[in-house]
Amino acid sequence: MRLTTKGRFAVTAMIDLALRQGNGPVTLSAISERQEISLSYLEQLFGKLRRHQIVESVRGPGGGYNLARKAADVSVADIIIAVDEPLDATQCGGKENCHSATHPGGPRCMTHDLWSTLNEKMVEYLDSVSLQDLVDQQKEHKLAETRSAEKQSVVVMHRPQAAA
Predict the structure, then answer these.
(1) Contact present, 71 and 131 (Cβ < 8 Å)
(2) Residue 90, pLDDT score
(3) What SS3 state is found at 73?
(4) pTM for the model
(5) CB atoms within 10 A of CB 134
């Protein structure tokens, strides 16, 4: 089980968008360039995000996308679910016919409850992380990088003092 690029790209694009809120609508072409995600792929993802009222589109010159609600009110689970990303660790997709997908009502595997519980924990965790949390995390990383770069670029030079 793993999160596909659909979910990863949607979350990445949403962080990019949220980081730029307050500066007007953000274009998908700008997100595409910064994050190296195909523009056509972003168009598909943002269509789904718009239908789930996570983003809103602004048409015309200077148009693009804005968040439809506050970043603190959007969870990572909201984003992943909006783009139809399956969060399922079970082999059967929750149908409990783990041994044979071709036989509905077949027996479930011995580890079904384990994987079902993992599903619940994943959704619970992703629901506890807001888009604002991720934005704040990115801002902290940028600040730390800036501080580190400033320390590395400071050159202290001393002139020999003339003897008195």
Answers:
(1) yes
(2) 73
(3) helix
(4) 0.79
(5) 20
Angle CA 35–15–70, to nearest 5 = 150
Upper half-sphere CA count for residue 40 (Cβ side, 13 Å):
0
CA distances from 2 to 44, 54, 122, 140, 159 (A): 21, 24, 11, 27, 59
Q: What's the length of the chain?
A: 164
pLDDT of 101 > 60? The answer is: no
DSSP 81-150: HHTT-----SSSTTSS-TT-TTSTT-PPPTTHHHHHHHHHHHHHHHHHSBHHHHHHHHHHHHHHHHHHHH
Q: What is the DSSP string of 30-68?
A: HHHHHHT--HHHHHHHHHHHHHTTSEEEE-STT-EEEES
141 contact partners, CB below 8 Å, separation of at least 6? none
